[in-house]
Fold these 3 entries.
Entry 1:
Amino acid sequence: MSKKINEKIQSIIKQCESLSNDDIESLPNYKKFKVFYSKKSHKTCDIYLLCAFIFGLLAIFTTSISYIGIEHVLYYSYDRIFSINIYHEECLAPKLETLIDIFRPITSCDICQHIDHIERISNITREEFEEKYAYTNHPVIITDAMNDWLALENFNYEFFKRIYRTNSSALRGVEDNCQFFPYKNKDEFETLGDVFNMDFDRAHMIDDDYKPWYVGWSNCDYSTAYLLRQYYSRPYFLPERSESSKLDWIFMGTPGFGAHMHIDNVDLPSWQAQVRGRKQWTLRPAPECFHICKELTFIVEPGEIIILNTNVWYHKTSVVSEDEISITIGSEFD
């Protein structure tokens, strides 16, 4: 039996040896095999090229580290990729808002499905505010809570420039321990000190072709907080057992600029008092509520306070004053 099989194999081999290239190419499965082998060869080649490219980058990177130094390589990489200055950041992990959005808790659409405008109210009791607005995630504007605030007359660019003067404890507190948001001006304002060192004409919008600016920062220096709170008082409508955060947030800038659309990652709802200028707000529901809830756009006028949970509402702002900078101060409350 094995002898017959061997003879058959030898016969097939002789037939194959007698075939010309034309005979082989005329076989039905030759073209399929050729296409398959060509694709496989290309894929293999692409993989080799990709590996060579990666190893080349690694070689350049490791050579750069040994030649330039790890500190300079990190500085350049973070500056180019994340726009982070490693000398001014305590944490080198970039704050990627896209990732924060992806992993945030799902929002209940009950908070926004019946809201089609922002109410403006006054003379509200603490009990009514607590029941309807304080913890319901229902945004509202209070129009009469700043009537006796000295901030309305005293807060301006020069006032804050004096407080956050060069080498002051207030400025060091912000630059060492607090948050600073330069928004669209991040290429020119690395610290709050840069804001108060800008050209006088630009700061006060003297030239018609001035370059707009808008910044925000938290104040976590207790002595500075005590000084600021001599110019404003606790909003009367906050529930009696509620405590405001010891942290002040201040936002200031010229017409045309503001904060981009985002959602915050803070602990509590907040109030923001519009001390100077006019600011347009846009509130957008979470993506899972687009089919139920409406986007809201409105303007907060000087002397008004908006109450908003920025952890559940996406929001952006834009200063819309014609000839005045916007100054807003606010705080969280529990």
Entry 2:
Amino acid sequence: MPLNNLSPLFGKKVLILTHAGADVDSLASAAAIYFSLKEKSKITIGVPDHLNLNAKALAKQLKIPYKINPSFTGFDALLCVDFNKSKMLGSLQKNFLFYNGKKFLIDHHSEEKEIMAPKKNIFASKKAISTTELVYQLLKKTKLKISKKAYACIASGIITDSASFHIADHSTFKIMAEVMEKAGLSYRGLVDLFSTEIDFSQRIASLKAAKRVKIFKSGKAIIAVSDVGAFESNAANALIRIGANVAFCGFAEKGTIRISGRVNNSWMNKKKFDLARDVFNKLEKHFPGEGGGHQGAAGFNGKGNKIEPILLKCVDLTHKFISKKEKANLKEYT
């Protein structure tokens, strides 16, 4: 039987781990559990390496306590939220692999081969739009008093991972209606918890992505790639907004490679395309690094000094997927 409530954590000293570069859904999942279980257990939120800007804003607004790269010493159990590959722990991966205590996992990504926790300690569903949805289900089954802050966290994770409900289903709206009412905040008020001003550098990154873009046609799909200096996810989103079906943006700096991919939602649903499954997980076979994420938003972190070969491989893998569905030639537009 999989994990069906959080009572196994009662009375324990628990370290809740987000993935490296924690996003809103990951931090919000940890925080919702922290705010709900802190009277039953001694909870610490651990973040490997760093938070993204929106998660940092949420932490500040809701006063979410967290530690960057904490020691695992003294904890009875680890609870991983919003990831299912140990590589996603960044610099804490080795600590996790050598940890001998109990391990638990809550996640909504596609299933991976790696077994991070015993089956009885896992609650996972790739059908869930966000990990906070799964956390909400567990909190209700545990029959704990859920605070307004916890409800706000759950709602924040849903908003961000559904891309403001562009990829939501009826169950997402049902859950959102419940948690929004109990959080006591309007939709605008919830968004304000994690919103950050788009600064000059982000706007420049998006404009550079458009300036440097390479455009490919595969069948009837437009695939766009661009070498940007930073804010690769924003840049990929910008290319989708201006017409690409699939976009990959990335950069190479000091031996580090980072790529973000985005997909037009209607095209993704029509073709049953999955960025993580069809592109980024497969990149690991060709380049050193690790890939993962969601169906419509995923990424790759690796090592190397040249970004172009990896971006072109992303195009090739996308074209191979399309070619299985329809007769398609790959053509670059210059």
Entry 3:
Amino acid sequence: MITDARALKPEFVPRDLHHREGQIDHLSSVLAPLQYDTAENVTIFGPSGSGKTTIAKYVVTQLERETLGIRWGYVDGMSDNTTTAALHRLVREVNLGADLRRRGEPTALALDRLRECDDQVVAILDEVSVLEERPLVALANLPNVSLVAITIDEEEWLDSLGRPATSRMQSAATVRLEKYSLQELIDILDSRVSHGLIKSRVDDEAVRRAADIAAGDARRGIALLRRAAKRLEETDERQLTVETIENVVGAAERDIQQRRVRSLGTHQRLLYNIIADAGEISGTELADEYERRSVDPKSDPTRRRYLKSLRQYGLIEASGEGRARRYRSVT
């Protein structure tokens, strides 16, 4: 049933991207001046599953293939959200820091490696709203580094930045994405089927049903296909049908949730685990328990940023304000 499992992974970047041609052209034009040693920063905004990370990786991969003297690296702000973690991840991604250790090495050393690099560097900062501001400002100050900052909400992120970061990112070029329409998502999922599955064993209506359930979110649609294909591999079912898709909805949602939990950084995971263990907890109780369990507690503003990211990605829910604030885990 499965001919190429890579096509069913959310991080897979296909050779051809459907229904994002305009945004790809715009991003390409912004980064094209890297051929002449200069390019502006760019921000990509849009809802979850709208293709933000995919088009960023697609464009910089194409640019790297066509241009000498360009390197690029990817940093996931959900897992590498501190200054040290983000900078060390980036220098390793661009093959400048294999010998650097995250613990015990000053962040200035990572910045020096980037500054002294003869190549132009593109830093893709995913989930940048969770990232500390210091690496954002430090990287923006390097003349040979261009930032591609990715997050969901443009206004909320820019409003949350301090003055140094705001002055650097407000002038960045902007790429905005919307949720996919039903037909657009059908086309995307159909392409994944062609790349990764035996197409004759997948009903057209099953692809349509997966797109309908996913409601514009490509990540959810791909998760449904992956879980449905796995079901066929593990059973004696021969055809991937509408019924197959409907039978794996719960499992696909759990796959997405588990993947997001695995991507969390240390302090986000601690906050999530406290809420999940309690089922429901007040903001005051959460703060007290976090302080008790954490070796090096983060500040209140940082904690609020982490909790907001957990809400945005459907891992927790929140209600009430101030002292009446309560958090619940989503199962």
